[in-house]
Amino acid sequence: MLTCGRYLSSAAATTPSLSPLRTLTCSFLRRHPLRFLSSASAAAATTAVQPDTRGKNPRTPKMKPSLILSYHHLSRVGLGTGGGGGGAGGGATTPKWKAAIDFKWIRDNRDAVATNIMNRISVANLDVVLQLYDQYLALQKEVERLRAERNAVANKMKGKLDPSVRQALVDEGKNLKESLIVLEENLVQLTDKLQLEAQSIPNTTHPDVPVGNEENSAVRKEVGSQRKFSFTIKDHVQLGKDLDLFDFDAASEVSGSKFYYLKNEAVLLEMALVSWAIAEVSRKGFTPLITPEIVRSSVVERCGFQPRAQNTQVYSIDGSDQCLIGTAEIPVGGIHMNSILPDSDLPIKYVAYSHCFRTEAGAAGAATRGLYRVHQFSKVEMFILCRPEESDKYHEELITIEEDLYASLGLHFKTLDMATGDLGAPAYRKYDIEAWMPGLERYGEISSASNCTDYQSRRLGIRFRPAPSEPPLATNSKKGKGGSSGPTQFVHTLNATAVAVPRLIISILENFQQEDGTVVIPEPLRPFMGGLGVLSPKTK
């Protein structure tokens, strides 16, 4: 996904924001009161803590049978009467969704996780997560002990008993039931708080990713060279004015700053870029999509972004639980939400067209001039769901597609392996492509490609069932057990920008301008513009 204006993740939300558009305002995350759950519904809370990825259940540490976790003990982590807020959920105590987080792996790899959080400049609090997890395990063990005692009491009541003995067992069973109700309710609250805190932990990081901030990113590849001009060049804003391609003033009056009208050949150029990109990527086995542009806020969160953070890039629709998308990555990621895919379906490749909407909170300065940083734009996004062992390979495929597309347009660009401090929470590794923009006298990001491994799929609930490694046994086939492939696994997801229209319009206008004021259209786009090869000033 193209990270225009730092489309923020759940791991990074620290920069003060500017006021969003008045027409669409961010509403506060609604707080849901805690419910007093029955024993049966409270028991379901234990499903929020997932086993490790190798299918082994985390072992509960041995504890003294006399261990009792009191209200006072739980209230120290904000789980007494009234719930307590804080953490990644911004004060909410009941998450609207739960990620399949491998808490045992986090605990067993504490040092590595702590270093990763530090390198990625994340706000996640690992100490709190581990404290809550230890308390969860202890409380779960105590709940299981009381359930076992309750069952033992029930078994003792079978058959003929002396009335005094039976009454003593009834009283004991009643006391156990009341104790269980309290502990099971506390277990639900503890599970919710653990989930909310842990959701802010970013993905792991590829070992070859440079450590540091954006300036520490490594150049992976450079294509072409800066064009030498023999005349005074113009930036895309002046070129657009001379060629009558844009109207920023009217858009500012109608919609506000950072909006624009495209006019005349600029309209054809946008349509050509979109059609060309979809055609080229579709030939490589990607299924074309046009996505919804309004999604539920929970889907945005499950993809790893914060729709209601203070400086969010996401427009939330006031009075609803919906948002405008900042990238097609979000609705495409949601297509297979809560599903188990057949192994034979993988990889699944999409190329999706959508409009994108971003608040660009905190953006200011010369880098925002003209089309460079806007609130609404068109984009073509690639998205892949694949087996875990293949995600590095498909990451290379995506960045190669991007590099081939831009090289065919004749652009000069460099590909960067982005440093840890520039990675959003979902990304395991991210490549950015920056094109030379001579009018702006700088390189500008035109694309990125991210491998998110299983970070998003654990949140979205997207699994696959591996194909059986051996032929099914005939003796088991009638029982439906033949060819069993064992437990499901989470898919890996990847995303990459094929075309972010405004940035490519800038690159084309500024790099291919001529001394007479015309602009030459790159040859691959001409068939999609009715054969038009040159943009010329309008004659009066």
Key features of this structure:
540 residues, alpha+beta, eight-stranded mixed β-sheet, 14 helices
Gyration radius over CA: 28 Å
Q: For the report, how would you describe the main beta sheet?
A: 8 strands, mixed
The general outline is elongated
Q: Low-confidence runs (pLDDT<50, min 5 residues)? A: 2-48, 51-92, 475-483
Helix content: 25-40%
Query: What percentage of the residues does DSSP assign to strands (E)?
Result: 15-25%
Distance between the termini: 42 Å
Quantity of strands, as a count: 17
List the helices and strands and how they pair.
Elements: H1 39-43, H2 71-75, H3 103-108, H4 110-119, H5 126-156, H6 163-198, E1 218-223, H7 236-242, E2 246-247, H8 248-254, E3 261-262, H9 265-282, E4 287-290, E5 294-296, H10 297-302, E6 322-324, H11 329-334, E7 339-342, E8 348-357, E9 376-386, H12 391-408, E10 413-417, E11 429-437, E12 442-451, H13 455-460, E13 462-465, E14 489-490, E15 492-500, H14 501-511, E16 519-520, E17 534-535
Parallel strand pairs: 4-8, 7-13
Antiparallel strand pairs: 1-10, 2-3, 5-6, 8-9, 9-15, 10-11, 11-12, 12-15, 13-14, 16-17
Give a brief description.
This protein is α+β, with helices and mostly antiparallel strands. The protein has helices at 39-43, 71-75, 103-108, 110-119, 126-156, 163-198, 236-242, 248-254, 265-282, 297-302, 329-334, 391-408, 455-460, 501-511, and strands at residues 218-223, 246-247, 261-262, 287-290, 294-296, 322-324, 339-342, 348-357, 376-386, 413-417, 429-437, 442-451, 462-465, 489-490, 492-500, 519-520, 534-535. The strands form 5 sheets. It has an 8-stranded mixed β-sheet. The chain has a 3-stranded mixed β-sheet with strand order 7-13-14.
